[in-house]
Design brief:
heterodimer; A: mainly beta; Immunoglobulin-like; about 15% helix; B: mainly alpha; globular
Chain lengths: ~110, ~280
């Protein structure tokens, strides 16, 4: 039942979307550390239009949620834990993120250029 | 304290809206109170277990276990909501009729009720685990502000529950037949939203690497971070900047559920007339 509905939609979509990139370019990986509810580095520069892997290490004893509606990422990282986030290929610009559990101190920005 | 209140309030509202709609959709069905209570209890217990195991879950699947888990859980919720909607389409008329006649003796109410109990459990599980992690962090860091933060958290829970009750009251004030079709529509949109959200989690985990370019940006109309945006997100899966795959899955889920519901819906007269004729 699902397939007959999907196929025409996919076709429609492929026809209308020139941005389609099935083969992702690898923009490398970046490390991000949370300590005392602060992100280091607070600015991360990535190449625009490439997929980037973000490794987040939480050095605090308490959990933090890496949260960014601009990057479309929501990820809980347990106290003392690590997490991996895949950033979609980004258009050039600034993309803010914050630690949802400590919004006062935990801020950062991804700069795609 | 205010920050704790806001965070907990947001999470509880997101789960509370789903519980409110489920309660409204099943109003008058026997045993639904117990099923929803069981769902909430299972969700709370699951949320605590999930929070306790967050570090282990997080490290599974090359650090993306959490996303895979969320996507799986949302996929199950979508299926349960689809099942309920399609089941209601084939039995809804009889249920509305029985409710008017007998004040709530629906013999066949059990089956979609189980599905909705699972949906309630999943909603509470997902939002609850974040609340547990957040409040546990506050308790752990201690300090003079901890008690104030916990009080804020408690107020947040209270406020979220209140909003869910208001939504439920609002929906049940509508005449039964109309309310059932309204909640049916809401549940279909909710299911599509959950399916699209599952896709977003798979993309975040790098497992659905296609059509990831944003299709539009309506943040100037309704931003994701605003309270209204969050409500729209948990109700109908709104997101200001959806990408191609999300839009596709959203539309496909809507089409499949409403298509199947239409296919199984009994013919308007034929299904009702014999039953009422037999009763007379």
């Amino acid at each position: 039942m699902r397939i007959p509905y999907l196929l025409p939609l996919i076709g429609l979509f492929l026809a209308g979307n020139a941005n389609l990139s099935l083969a992702a370019d690898d923009g490398g990986s970046r490390d991000l550390v949370i300590k005392d509810h602060v992100f280091t580095p607070a600015e991360i520069t990535v190449p625009a239009g490439k997929r980037v892997t973000l490794h987040i290490k939480n050095m605090d004893a308490t959990a933090e949620e890496f949260d960014s509606s601009a990057l479309k990422v929501e990820k809980v990282i347990a106290g003392g834990g690590t997490g991996t986030v895949y950033l979609r290929p980004l258009a050039p610009g600034r993309y803010k993120f914050e630690g949802e559990y400590h919004e006062k101190t935990a801020h950062g920005v991804v700069i795609a250029q | 304290m205010l920050a704790a209140l806001l965070i907990v309030f947001r999470e509880v509202i997101e789960a509370g809206l789903i519980v409110g709609i489920v309660l409204a959709a099943t109003s008058g069905v026997r045993g639904r109170g117990r099923m929803v209570a069981l769902g909430i209890a299972a969700g709370v217990i699951g949320a605590c277990l999930l929070a306790a195991g967050a570090d282990r879950l997080g490290s599974l699947f090359a650090g993306s276990g959490q996303e895979v888990f969320q996507a799986a859980v949302l996929g199950i919720a979508t299926l349960m909501l689809a099942w309920h909607t399609i089941w209601m389409a084939s039995h809804g008329r009889a249920i509305a009729g029985e409710m008017r006649a007998l004040g709530g003796a629906v013999s066949e109410g059990r089956r979609p009720l189980t599905a909705l109990g699972v949906v309630v459990a999943i909603a509470v599980l997902r939002e609850g685990s974040e609340v547990v992690l957040f409040l546990y962090g506050i308790a752990l860091s201690g300090g003079a502000s901890a008690s104030g933060m916990v009080a804020g958290g408690a107020l947040g829970v209270g406020g979220g529950v209140l909003v869910a009750i208001l939504l439920y009251r609002g929906l049940t004030a509508i005449p039964v037949g109309r309310m059932l079709s309204l909640t049916g529509g809401l549940i279909t949109l909710m299911a599509a939203g959950m399916a699209a959200q599952a896709v977003a989690f798979l993309q975040q985990a790098g497992l659905a690497d296609m059509l990831s370019a944003p299709v539009w940006n309506s943040a100037f109309l309704l931003a994701d971070e605003s309270i209204a945006g969050r409500l729209a997100h948990s109700l109908i899966g709104y997101t200001a900047e959806p990408d191609g795959l999300q839009v596709l899955v959203y539309a496909a889920t809507l089409l499949v559920i409403s298509g199947l519901a239409r296919a199984v819906r009994p013919a308007p007269r034929a299904a009702v007339m014999p039953a009422s004729a037999a009763a007379e």
